[in-house]
Amino acid sequence: MSKKLFEVAQEAKIGLIVQVKDNQPTLRAAIERLTTTFAPHDCAQSRNHGRNRDETRIVTIFAPSEALAGTDWHPHVASIIQVERSVATRNPSTGLLHQTNETAFYVANRPITAARAAKAIRAHWKIENTSHYTRDVTMGEDLSRIRTNPGIFARMRSFGFNILMVSKTGTMKQDRYRAALAGVRYLLSLLAIPKR
Fold first, then answer.
1. Is the pTM of this model over 0.70?
2. Among 52, 76, 133, 186, which is disulfide-ready with 90 (CB 3.0 to 4.6 Å)?
3. Residue 195: helix, strand or coil by DSSP?
4. Which residue, among 157, 193, 153, 189, has the nearest Cα to 176 in the 3D structure?
5. Intervals of the chain under pLDDT 50
6. 160 phi and psi, to 5 degrees?
């Protein structure tokens, strides 16, 4: 997350919500202090209950003025968003519940309501889970050590992933293995010595 991203969004008049992670320790610490000290402006709660899973989400909106005053982030951040997730997962074989709690922080470049922020963040996670996560697992994208022009290789992986998704015959792993074998066989056929 960079201030340049917020400047570009402001010039283009685009609303932006970005998660604050541990790589921004000063900003994150200021936000955490704000959320424990000041009262929120808006709050929304939702609950999803599915098979063996019960998730409660509380989205809270804070004004950033007190926390970010005097910092480089002050002109860029219009809302601070706190998302608290509590997930209870039931183990089908034992019937026991496993409880996890997680708090995430986001910043927005425009004032936003809690309900709208919750919807936007939830929509992003759908993209993350259906596209990025499957690409990471199928193509081993997180394990990649490519540091020169990584964007080119990311596009190549996306291209290959899309081909596998469209022409799916078995599982993704099987299709990837089958495609790799076909490529090796073709390369070996190019190296084969012609018969006389």
1. no
2. 52
3. coil
4. 157
5. none
6. -65, -40
- Residue 89 backbone phi and psi in degrees, to 5: -115, 130
C-alpha 85 chain-centroid distance: 15
Angle between helix axes 172-191 and 150-166 (nearest 10 degrees) is: 110
Using CA atoms, how far apart are residues 77 and 79, in angstroms rounded to an integer?
6
Contacts of 196 (CB under 8 A, 6+ apart): none
What's the alpha-carbon Rg for the chain, to the nearest Å?
A: 23
CA distances from 51 to 46, 60, 122, 127 (A): 17, 27, 19, 22
Distance CA 30, CA 179 (A): 50
Model pLDDT, residue 43: 93
Q: Where would I find the beta strands (DSSP E) of the chain?
A: 17-20, 42-50, 53-62, 79-90, 97-108
Q: 99-119 burial by CB neighbour count: b if 16+ within 10 A, else e?
A: eeeeeebbbbbeebebebbbe
Q: Which two tokens stand for residue 109?
A: 């470049």
